[in-house]
Amino acid sequence: MREHEVRVRRSDEEFPREEELAWQLARVATDDVPVDDDVAGMVVNRVLDNAAVSAASLLRASVVAARAQALAHPPSRGGAGARVAGTTEDVSPEWAAWANGVAVRELDFHDTFLAAEYSHPGDNVPALVAVAQHLGVDGASLLRGIVVAYEVQVDLVRAISLHRHKIDHVAHLGPSVAAGLGAMLRLPTAVVHQAIGQALHTTTATRQSRKGAISTWKAYAPAFAGKVAIEAVDRAVRGQTSPAPIYEGEDGVVAWLLDGPDALYRVPLPEPGEPRRAILDTYTKEHSAEYQAQAVIDLARRLHREHPELRDPANVASIVLHTSHHTHVVIGSGANDPQKYDPAASRETLDHSVPYVFAVALQDGGWHHVDSYVPARAARPDTVALWRKVSTVEDPEWTERYHATDPARKAFGARVVATLTDGSTVVDEIAVADAHPLGARPFTRPQYERKLAVLAEGVLAPEEVERFTALARRLPELSAGEVRDLGIVAPPDLLSTVPLPRGLF
């Protein structure tokens, strides 16, 4: 890997286009590098993972609304169209990316990468699959695009913090989707450069979507980035240009939205010809909640077994989670969001409340993507009493470990100090989630396939799960026709149980 320096440039400063970060990312996309076998295997895992969480969300209101919007947009003239998740219907590719992106993101249950910024790199996949289906792209090319999209997003996330400046993390997703599409379609570097610039320019928004009373837009934001990136690539292919230098310009993203005129970022990028392996540094979720809550859930279910007295709020004076700055201020009590302690809060808010997640997992000894969030569960009096005794504090050591570059040191856990009413304490800690590659039970192919089978229960027929799983396993060798079938199909009678809402289209 090499480090590319990014700083603000004056408009009258001589600054070659080839030194722009957007151009450097475009070069990563257009450098034709073979895909390593273990990387290809992980791409298959993540395609299975996305299908699993999409299946579980097909009847949820946000997904139904996005599906209704997509189905109002038939295939455009440039190709055959792309499949809407859960159906056999083809629509224009940007709208398929929209609907399928919402389905993937709705339950906050797919893969993650955390560093200077946070991200869900699996959000790249719906847009790439949609364009591949529309244009008749084979599995090998789709694989190449997904690998590059992961590489670009992870490299940006390693170096450039958005949340520090209250910018939503999808500002890294727009450029990564554009780069992935450029790689998949083997577009010229100059075209990909323009697409990346416009994708960034049009997907930069505030992170109020993840603050306070969190709305349904949380699921839509990444899908919007994918849709907009497809449109940016389309314009670039048609010869249209974009604001530049988009990162480094005097009125650009870094100068006014991020660290300002004196900023200096060092973005790690692969050398020419170097394999793109960033996907191997990402990790998926065993539980449907914000990633920093994954290890906390595993810690809570261990305490459920070993210290049953903690389940009863009458025995507990306080529970303090000592954790990283990010966990404390984003999903902990350091966010100063009263909604994180509100039994009537939305599901989107509760999955970003580590006090709630810890209290429920401690009492139940586990976590369920539906049952753990139902209003009756959130409002149970003994749960509310315990929940309001849980708080977080930042511990500098956990913050340092959160940002560590050494995978063996990097951690997203916490130390719990529970003080009982009799004055005794229970102290325990966990560094990484059980499903993490360094965790107690790392996810491998069987766990990904089981996740799909479990989340598809009652939604997809068993033979449909088997069909999709067999197809996904062969992703690198799929024909263009087989790529068109790379989507889950639910029984029409099931989908019709939730009527499509009417809108403008």
TrEMBL record:
<dbReference type="Pfam" id="PF19305">
    <property type="entry name" value="MmgE_PrpD_C"/>
</dbReference>
<comment type="subunit">
    <text>Monomer.</text>
</comment>
<keyword id="KW-0456">Lyase</keyword>
<dbReference type="Pfam" id="PF03972">
    <property type="entry name" value="MmgE_PrpD_N"/>
</dbReference>
<protein>
    <recommendedName>
        <fullName>2-methylcitrate dehydratase</fullName>
        <ecNumber>4.2.1.79</ecNumber>
    </recommendedName>
</protein>
<comment type="similarity">
    <text>Belongs to the PrpD family.</text>
</comment>
<feature type="domain" description="MmgE/PrpD N-terminal">
    <location>
        <begin position="19"/>
        <end position="262"/>
    </location>
</feature>
<dbReference type="InterPro" id="IPR036148">
    <property type="entry name" value="MmgE/PrpD_sf"/>
</dbReference>
<dbReference type="InterPro" id="IPR005656">
    <property type="entry name" value="MmgE_PrpD"/>
</dbReference>
<dbReference type="InterPro" id="IPR045336">
    <property type="entry name" value="MmgE_PrpD_N"/>
</dbReference>
<dbReference type="InterPro" id="IPR042188">
    <property type="entry name" value="MmgE/PrpD_sf_2"/>
</dbReference>
<feature type="domain" description="MmgE/PrpD C-terminal">
    <location>
        <begin position="287"/>
        <end position="475"/>
    </location>
</feature>
<dbReference type="GO" id="GO:0047547">
    <property type="term" value="F:2-methylcitrate dehydratase activity"/>
</dbReference>
<dbReference type="InterPro" id="IPR045337">
    <property type="entry name" value="MmgE_PrpD_C"/>
</dbReference>
<dbReference type="InterPro" id="IPR042183">
    <property type="entry name" value="MmgE/PrpD_sf_1"/>
</dbReference>
